[in-house]
Amino acid sequence: MTANLRGVPAPATTSTALLTDMYELTMLQAALHGGVAERASVFELFGRNLPASRRFGVVAGVGRLLDAIERFTFTDAQIDYLHSAGIVDDDTLDYLRSYRFSGTIRGYAEGECYFSGSPLLTVESSFAEACILETLALSIYNYDCAVAAAASRMTIAAHGRPCVEFGARRAHERAAVSAARAAIVGGFVGTSDLEAGMRYGIPTVGTSAHSFTLLHDTEEDAFASQVASLGPGTTILVDTYDIERGVARAVAAARAVGGELGAVRLDSGDLVAEAFKVRAQLDALGATTTKITVTSDLDEYAIAALGAAPVNSYGVGTKLVTGSGRPTAALVYKLVERAGADGQMQEVAKFSTGGKSTVGGRKWAGRVLDAAGSATEELVVSARSEAAGLAALEAAGARPLQVDLVRDGVIMEEHRGPDALAAAAERHQVSRAELPYQGWRLSEGDPAIPTRHVDIDNRQVLHG
Fold first, then answer.
1. Is the model's pTM score more than 0.90?
2. Which domains does the chain have, with CATH numbers?
């Protein structure tokens, strides 16, 4: 199914500047006072490890982040709040009044798969400008990547059968819109959420709930009313009372107006057994074109279990919008390089124990493919310059993964908007297809491919 994605962006006047943690502004204040706020800095957003049971991650949220950065300006009301609450001093407020991100951001294109240590974002600017984007970037990427990864696993399990996002009622009302978008990146083809449909041009799906059937005096009346309004091609929910009777009545309602029923929906019971029984009943009635869609707390494992059943599509809600057990992608945002007092760039790294150390220096990433086009490793190169990093990737036969998202404060428009979302969904299918077979497994195990880090400059890393 190909979606024609056309949407309406979020209002440009909605500021995102206070979608942040207080310590980012207090760090800014201290850096301004200490005279180091304008030091050239490089931050990276990455995951130390993939969440358990995830053999690959999925990059999602790129377009949303670019929209949010565009709106990351401080309004008079926000400045007044920060002043009245005593969050930061007047000098810092003066800086924030004119804040606009003017740096450069590179990152993995939306839809790409990623692995441990993959530099999903590289933010280059002054410390002051980059520091205060931390929470915004992490909140978008951690949620969207988690949902997209769950969606990808579900579409793998579906083996080409369409999956539709039905999770709006199981999430925060704004998170639901973001989840619908991330689900499209992961391979879903539609949503029930109308705000997501309007904002991102996602095809919307929905007909009726049990309450509509219960509203009427008889099930026949409910089905006849739905068909009269929505046409015989509609999808009718048939398990309010007795499924067998419901199927017969739904088919009869469509035929009463001269058509064949589009689909029946099953939302309860043993979905595998019921799907077989309903398919047999539909065929016996001659309704061979009527399809079966199933809902009811599906996840990738339930979808896989339905693989042999005569099901045509899936509606997925709770498990999708909560990352199917992994509600965050566990990404972090760390300073990896900054200018010293002499103006020279210096690698910096965190040397904490307990798995929280980081690798210093800006990085260039590529995916190494074998002769058959199958991915064999994620190569991450620490290098002083883009030219050196890209040369190292080319020498290893690696496909470069990073693209410019913001260049000197200017957003690269090809990475946001409805067309970018459609491109991200297509990109994910290609990226996922590169992975070796074991990377598609739903069971826990090693990442689909290993990550190899190379520091071609062998610079000393500052550690205090």
1. yes
2. 22-149+326-455 (3.20.140.10), 207-291 (3.20.20.70)
